[in-house]
Amino acid sequence: QVQLKESGPGLVQPSQTLSLTCTVSGLSLTSNSVSWIRQPPGKGLEWMGVIWSNGGTDYNSAIKSRLSISRDTSKSQVFLKMNSLQTEDTAMYFCARKSYGTYYFDYWGQGVMVTVSS
Amino acid sequence: DIQMTQSPASLSASLGETVTIECRASEDIYNGLAWYQQKPGKSPQLLIYNANSLHTGVPSRFSGSGSGTQYSLKINSLQSEDVASYFCQQYYDYPDTFGAGTKLELK
Question: Does A118 contact chain B (CB < 8 Å)?
C-alpha cells in the first residue's frame, strides 16, 4: 500500500540548513507528485512546495528563496533543503502525495518534528 | 494567493449531535476544496474532496457541500472518535492554501 515516511534531524541551529527525506513506497515518483507541508505547533498547515511527476518543482513564494526540493527516483526518495532557518521555522514537517490527475492530498507521512534552537 | 477563512476556530458538541464547520474562500474556487481530519499527534487524513465527494473508507456521517466561495463540512451523529481538528484546503488555484482549522471537542 502507499506509504510515505519523513526523516531528518529533530534539532537545527538558527541560520543552519534543514535537510529532510521523504521515503515513499507503493507508488512511483514518476507518476505522482509529492509536496512538503509544515505545521507550527498548535497552528495551521502551510504548503511549502512540490516536485511533480516530471521532476519539475514549484515553491511557496514566501519561502522560495530558501527552499529546494529534489528527488532520487531509484531510491523512491524526495528531499527538502531549506537554508537560513529561524525559530519560526519550528514545525512538524509532512510530505504528502497527490495522485496523478487529482489535486488533493490522499496520503500523508507521519511527519517529523523540527525544532530550531541554539 | 486565495485566502481560506474557516469558522468556528473551536467547537464543543455532545455525542449524537450534528456539527457544521464552514470555510469561505476569498474568491470562487469552483468546488476545488478538500476537508481533512487531524487527530493529536497524527497527520491529516482526507475526508472529502471536490467539495462533496466522500473519500474511500470515510464514514457516511461526514458530508461536504457548498459552491462558489462558501463551503461546509457536516458531521451527523457525532461520535467520540470524531474529536479532532478539521482543516479545509483549496486546490483550485496555485498555491494550495489551507484554512486555520477547527478544533472539535466533546461537551
Answer: no
* Residue B105 backbone dihedrals phi, psi, to 5 degrees: -125, 160
pLDDT for the residue numbered A84: 96
The burial of A106, by beta-carbon neighbours within 10 Å (0-12 exposed, 13-18 middle, 19 or more buried), is given as middle
Would you state the cell numbers that stand for residue B55, as one nine-digit string?
Answer: 473519500
Q: What is the pLDDT of residues A66-84, one digit of tens each?
A: 999 999 999 999 999 999 9
Q: Which of A60, A108, A109 sits opposite B95 (nearest CB)?
A: A60
Cβ contact, residue pair A108, B91, below 8 Å: no
* Contact (CB<8Å) A45/B87: yes
Q: What is the DSSP letter of B77?
A: S
Cβ separation of B42 and A110 shorter than 8 Å?
A: yes
Contact B2, B97 (CB under 8 A): yes
What is the nearest CA distance from A28 to chain B, expressed in angstroms?
20
- C-alpha closest to that of A8 among A88, A94, A86, A117: A94
Q: What burial class does residue A88 get, using C-beta atoms within 10 Å of its C-beta: 0-12 exposed, 13-18 middle, 19+ buried?
A: exposed
| List of chain A residues whose C-beta atoms are within 8 Å of the C-beta of residue B91 | 103-104
Using an 8 Å Cβ cutoff, are A48 and A64 in contact? no
Nearest Cα neighbor of A29 from A103, A98, A80, A111 is A98
In this complex, the residue of A60, A104, A109 whose CB is nearest that of residue B43 is A109
